[in-house]
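Could you help me review a protein record that somebody else here produced? Here is the record exactly as it was handed to me:
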Amino acid sequence: MKRPDYIRPLDFRRGVIDMNHGAGGRASAQLIDELFLPAFDNPALRQGDDGARLDDLALASGERLVMATDAHVVSPLFFPGGDIGCLAVYGSVNDVAMLGARPLYLSASFILEEGLALAALRRVVDSMAAAARAAGVPVVTGDTKVVQSGKGDGVFITTTAIGVLPPGRHIGGARARAGDAVLVSGPVGAHGVAVLSQRESLEFETTIESDCAPLHELVAHLLATLPEGAVHVMRDPTRGGLATTLNEIARQSGLGMLLQEAAIPVLPQVAAACELLGLDPLYIANEGKCVVICATEHADAALAALRAHPLGQGAARIGECIADPQHFVQMATGFGGRRVVDWLAGDPLPRIC
């Protein structure tokens, strides 16, 4: 994809990291493309998804290993509907699930700040343990480090998940095809607004809770319902929200997308909060939703399968993949026009996952 004129190459002599590099948008993608990918280049990393298929480590059963890792730096540590502990479990479990794999085990690394209350740490660990038990994915190894006061903001958690992928299953961002249907498993934007409301002590008429949830059982139900190969792409729209996730997939697949504004589900209270705060819910992080891109002839069945599961009851078909050499994500608006839904350029809500 041609670099937009307003994106300059990274200046490795005088440049510095800023918050935009961690927002999951264009700046994050540029940092990966120009620094991490060239340094660590290998076939598994080159897949470009949120997890990696380890195709050269096939098991005797023919299954392949899948691995995903995620760091969690959310502030505050506790928010309506969740906390950093359950978020750390679900983040890596969901990344493995988005490749169509069954998550098996987790590792966890804790960076603790000097002065952190033990009661708060126990609350985080208990939540994390409960989430792992509920998901059926145990934490089997880990590490703990402590940094000086003022250097860690309470606790940072990194988790890694390992899972197994059935023989012949190939799901990833590069596999979308023109004409494919684009689905989302439910209303978007709740997680980011829930975290922001807690951080800024905002009060709304209705409590907005994070959608934080493990998605592997929803995915397993979906894939068991449809023929093998019907689902081409799955992705959980976390940092950067739905808009940035779809731009990532468009770039990977070399396609464009056309979305229907009226079809994108947003809870009324989330829409009202975003309007009040001047935010676009399409760019707000989610932690319990997934994007599904599938062959159009299976779209109705996929939608029915998602809606049949408790975590997919609000699922909707929101658009389609189209041939577009510019790889634009476009929105058909309620006024009959179109607008480009670009990458996230800044970071409207830092430290939300």
Summary: The first strand starts at residue 52 and ends at 54.
